[in-house]
Amino acid sequence: MTDTAAHRRPTIMEVARLADVSHQTVSRYFRAPDGLKPATKARVQAAVEQLNYRPNLVARSMRTRRTGRLAVVVPTLAYSPARMLSGASAAAHEAGYAVEVLSLEGGADERTQRVAELADSGQVDGIVAFAPVNAAAELEASSGTPIVASADFDDEMRGIGELADASAVGELVRGLADLGHRRFLHITGDLQFASARARRDTYLEAIDALGLESFGVVEGDWSSESGMAAIRGLPDQDRPTAVVAPNDLVAAGAIRGAIDRGWAVPEDVSVTGWDDQPLGRLLRPALTTVEVDLEGLGSRAMARLITALRDEPLPSEVRPIHRVIWRESTGVAPR
């Protein structure tokens, strides 16, 4: 055992496992031990003594007061949820709260353990989690600390939930059909992502519903190279006139691939992206894309937490987080 491990403070979850009870029972042991059965109380006490576990009594004494602090939990990975944090922080500050961001390592089980400890400590008035937390409602009930699990990303920061909604793809296909397009190509993102699978499926459903022709679905990997490769693989004749890409980077690659082949965008082929990256607005032609309101996603999650703290009704939902923005990379289908 390393020196660090030897001196690591034991957790409430470890006490619960040793005593063969839930962490809620351990929490009740410290709050109201007389409410436990004698045998259960004895097991918890023995585990507490064996592990030398001590709760944060200073923080616990604050339970009857508001701290004015809220926590936002994100996983520790390369993806930076800065825009969601910006929206959440703005909503919290407007309501008079300070915000602390906790970047927690590990998967859902480890994250749940840390969230349980934080909720039980009384150091914050409420918690928003932008990654999966197990049994959030139970954690909230046992600790008395409101918890909003707005799990919009999985443990690998792949978009799930509202972020995986692909209905905007249907709007793109319908809009292109209104411009006269009948032959389409879809380049996917990495199909390990729920969002990539949802966009592929919605594309195929829209093609079928409108009686259009799909020239194919080319599996990509979110990179510009996959966009260029998909265009390079098209025949010179009888090619699609509209390309639906999974993000702006792939769309930029598709545009470059078209230009390299001597095709004009959008005169010969229309191209759409997703994400509304700032660079896409500066391309020539400027990129038709889907805006993703990540700030709104964070703001709404924080608003749900604040209304829970204040026992107020939930705010009415605002517009969807996805919005199609039509620009110069799409036009009337070639004759």
From TrEMBL:
Keywords attached to this Swiss-Prot or TrEMBL record, sorted alphabetically, are: DNA-binding, Transcription, Transcription regulation
Any matching Pfam family: LacI
Q: Which domain of life is it from?
A: Bacteria
List residues of the HTH lacI-type domain. Answer: 10-64
Indicate yes or no for the key word Transit peptide: no
**Coiled-coil portions:** none
Q: Which CDD domains match?
A: HTH_LacI (cd01392)
MF GO annotations: DNA binding
What's the protein called, per UniProt?
Answer: LacI family DNA-binding transcriptional regulator
Q: Which organism is it from?
A: Microbacterium psychrotolerans
